Fold each of these.
Amino acid sequence: MPGPKPLSLELSDHERRVLRGWLRKQTASQALVLRSRIVLACAEGRPNAQVADDLGVSRETVRKWRSRFAADRLEGLVDRPRSGAPRKITDEQVEALVARTLGQAPPTGDSHWSTRSMAEAAGMSQSAVSRIWRAFGLKPHIVETWKLSTDPQFVT
């Protein structure tokens, strides 16, 4: 016994042009191209099972994008923003690390900070210190100073 009848999709001329444009666009993501193919096939009146077989996806995938398009139209096919993992290092910690790098000498008596010594002093990982230094262009191991020679034979 067949399942429930799938939602019928009626496309406007504009929507059909946009979907076909996504198919031709070389910079479009493959996911968006597949979603466009699914919607265009569904708009032709083909059942979910046939669309799934023709495009090599599951029936659930066809059902998902058919219903998402029916609810949100073209905007429903675009990837939704994802939050990602929350930051573990705050802006205040970054600011303190940069200020410490530029304003303080290492307590160990070294001539400059290393990522390991700064990580230990700041209480964060060495890779985090390295990423912050790279983001701000900090290179504490490179000293750009000039000392005048006290040698009388030195030509200036």
Note: The two ends are 97 Å apart (CA to CA).
Amino acid sequence: MNYPKFELLFCIEDESDPSIMLVKKLIEKHPEIDASVFIGGDKVGVNPKINNMNPGYEAAKYDLILVSDSGIRMKEDTLLEMVCAMTENVALVHQMPFTCDRGNFPSVMEKVYFGTSHARIYLAADLFRINCPTGMSALMRKKLLDEVGGIKAFGQYLAEDFFFAKSFTDRGWSIRISSQPAWQNSGICEITNFNNRISRWAKLRFAMVPYTIVLEPLSECMVLGACAAWALNVLFQWDVFVVYLVHILAWLILDWILLNVIQNNTLPFSKMDFVVAWTFREMGAFYHFCLALLDPKIQWRTRTFYLRWGGLAEEVSPRI
């Protein structure tokens, strides 16, 4: 990375993880890089990510700490750009989730979702200074975390990223979005995993910010279009189906424009692929909403957690 001084702290939970050998080979190949490996983590709460990261966090020696998931691909200038955004009144710089280019239909679904529906909400929330950071890539001031007990103080929550940001804003600090997205590059890309992930995030939002149960459906294309068509029919006797179709077409075009702006390059799929993936996502939004609302339990790999109001989590199924 193009940055004058940094250290890499690899945190790996499972001692049998094959990535350990890969990381050690990389460290041997680049002895000029200050890097360490932490295996096993510390049991400081119910959040597996916090437990895994805590040894690395406590060993960190610099004032700024960047939490980056293993599935995130970073460009050479990403760290420099994020540090430049960390002005004197900013405590956290985060990246909007997006995806790398891949070839199958599930990857098209992911890119369309993160480049349209998720991007709209994420950018709007940042514009109005609403707490929205995701923890997959976030640069934070370590001193401010230490003041509240370090990251282990957030081990009782599954959505540690939300509560990191809340801790900062409650003390008068600002959060800022990076100009570069977080390029997700996970090796697993399947429709089932994608659906489970979207439902899991919805469950977290409902537990942390309950009023989203009412507001979130009203932000969806199909629901909002139906409401608008009904209202215009009552007020002006406009044809319901014409209004609804025009609404959907306009929304589709604007989403296509937004996706291209975020991609900032040629998209790896055709317009028809986009239309199919976009329709699939929009039609499935209500399914994800109902699934999240009816089943508050969260499946995280081999663990199951129960969410309480306010975001507190309780493990109900121990790791196998």
Note: The first helix runs from residue 19 to 29.
Amino acid sequence: MESLTKNKQDRKVIEQMVLRAFPTITCREIIELKEGYFNVAYLIILDNDEKAILKIAPHPDSKIMSYEKNIMFSEVDSLRLVKKETDVPVPDIIYYDNSYEFCSFEYYFMSVIEGETLNVIRDSLSEEEKKAIQKEVGRYNRSINQIMGSRFGYYGQLGLQSTNWFEAFRNMIQLAYHDANAANIPVPINEEELLSLLDRDKSYFDDVTVPTLVHWDIWDGNVFIKDKKISGIIDFERCIWGDPLMEVGFRSYERNADFFEGYGVLSLTKEEDRRARWYDVYQFLLMVLESEYRKYETDDLYNWSKDMIVQCVKAIS
């Protein structure tokens, strides 16, 4: 996917990055991976036949949304944490450079996950295989959510974190509207109206007292499958210390019984369902902004997200 935030580099620059990460090995082949939406990524094949993935952060002059600040650090640090604390299959961080000595942006190398993404092979799987994989997604997601932190908010933005989840989440919504105003993006729901509804529902958030690690983006494109089993989960860059109900598996429009079984829940309580629906609203609020910030080739995502956020707000009004 082409995106304004993708900070593509020529071979000479990439070779210098490889040299810093692998001082005794040279680079044989560089292949751009086009699936992502934010960072540019390359498959690096070294002269000794070893492979690695290189991810490069946007140029510092790129216009990004508030929640996207410092997310390369978030991904690297959270991957190391998940690797240490769980059995979730995630890539190894090989080398991370945030020194800005060689260039004005961050980059890192990670190990290659074997297999294909679930969105690519889903149609080739039997119903039983799909059910088993969804249960496995739920189990791994639960393991991620069992990692606890000390404050709520964006993983890599300490200054925006809070000891209270409602305050942190309310601030996230306000920041999204700030980004909309900064880029002159029309949002179909007025900020004051939405915050008034949120304040009305404040008590539903009282049960969230412990910050837990939330991946927030475990969709099929971030789940690798090999031999009909999950071989890896990637893209932790948007992780949050928050409420596990922010996870994709709890979105109200695509709840999956097999995910729930693997996660270890039968259903959501009234309070949990209301919070999950607020997280639907927040997701589509960000997606309304995404097309403009990334300069996608069409307005399809904007138009679809605009309709979805109206439906989601109507469901909680």
Note: DSSP finds nine helices and eleven strands in the chain.
Amino acid sequence: MKSLEDLKQDLLADGKIDAAEVAELEKHLYADGKIDTDEADFLFELNNAVSGNENAPEWEIFFIEAISGYLLDDVNSAGEIDEDEATWLHDKITGDGSIDATERNLLLHLSERSNNFPDHLAELLNSN
């Protein structure tokens, strides 16, 4: 199986993510049934690299579902975003200096699905 770095190089060769690449990502990242921290970080790296480009609609759906699952389906705080997760998410979203539409839609999705939604994430969602 390809390393995440090799996969990243392949996916970013044309500067966008198409539907076939989303299928490849899903197969690769869910090979063990879940998204781990390295894979979640990887997804944010990909999103930052292709932000604003003509990506397949499947990319945003996959990104949102994968990150939401990573945050909400864990055993330590199932259905909730705990403080460590909130800090991680805040850092990932603000790390590149801007909040793109995919990240904003992720925040909106999490605000609707999580049993709690930390105030500093709500502020990000409502910021310009």
Note: The radius of gyration is 14 Å.
